[in-house]
């Protein structure tokens, strides 16, 4: 059997911190996407968590999503009309790079080694968007030492384009393995949105059969380690069941 290290966690605090820090070993922080918390809060979380507990974080939406996104309204963020075109879609503007600085400061406070960039469905495969990505990731190159950057694209992109960009910009292709396989080799980052049935999405609870298939997906990556982050309503219980199955 392939020697793959499987790390299992959840997206966001679906239970109390005490329960998560006691029973899990991995958490993807979601607050940093909507409206970043104070650095002192991140430092408190890091202090409360066991030393071996690992955080990853989701990059602030000001980097990836345009101000017309409903997630801005959900976070209570209002952008001045004359600055709307300076946010989102990896635009290499001072505003976006400032949003990265905030994200990176919190990453450091959490001692997180992984940052997840989730682009929305509206972020299409266009020359302008590809150019933005290249300029953005090259612009933060000085901050990337020992950081793994994951790109989860929600829009429809040609897989060869994704592979080429990820290779060029040193990104890990983040996927829901029930929807598609990653195009990047090596370590993998799976985000599970409850997609096997294709209907109930986040309300879906994974069956034992699903979890067996998930483990097979992990083994098939061929990489040394696979991060598995559940992001459905029953994420906490599903993660515990999967941890028991894979003996972690």
CATH topology of the domain at 5-174: TIM Barrel
Structural classification? alpha/beta
Termini Cα gap: 16 Å
Overall 3D shape: globular
The CATH superfamily of the domain at 5-174 appears as Protein of unknown function UPF0759
For the largest beta-sheet, the strand count, sense and barrel status come to: 8 strands, parallel
H and E string: EHEHHEHHHEHEHEEHEH
List the helices and strands and how they pair.
Layout: E1 5-11, H1 17-23, E2 26-29, H2 31-34, H3 39-48, E3 54-58, H4 61-64, H5 70-75, H6 94-110, E4 114-119, H7 127-139, E5 148-153, H8 159-169, E6 171-173, E7 188-192, H9 208-220, E8 225-230, H10 235-246
Parallel strand pairs: 1-2, 1-8, 2-3, 3-4, 4-5, 5-6, 7-8
Give a quick set of tags describing it.
248 residues; alpha/beta; TIM Barrel; 8-stranded parallel beta sheet; 10 helices
Descriptive notes:
This protein has a domain at 5-174: Protein of unknown function UPF0759 (TIM Barrel). It has an 8-stranded parallel sheet with strand order 6-5-4-3-2-1-8-7. By secondary structure, the protein is an alpha/beta fold. It is 39% helix and 17% strand. The chain is globular, with a radius of gyration of 18 Å.
Condensed summary:
This protein has helices at about 15-25, 30-35, 40-50, 60-65, 70-75, 95-110, 125-140, 160-170, 210-220, 235-245; strands at about 5-10, 25-30, 55-60, 115-120, 150-155, 170-175, 190, 225-230. It has about 250 residues and is of the alpha/beta class.
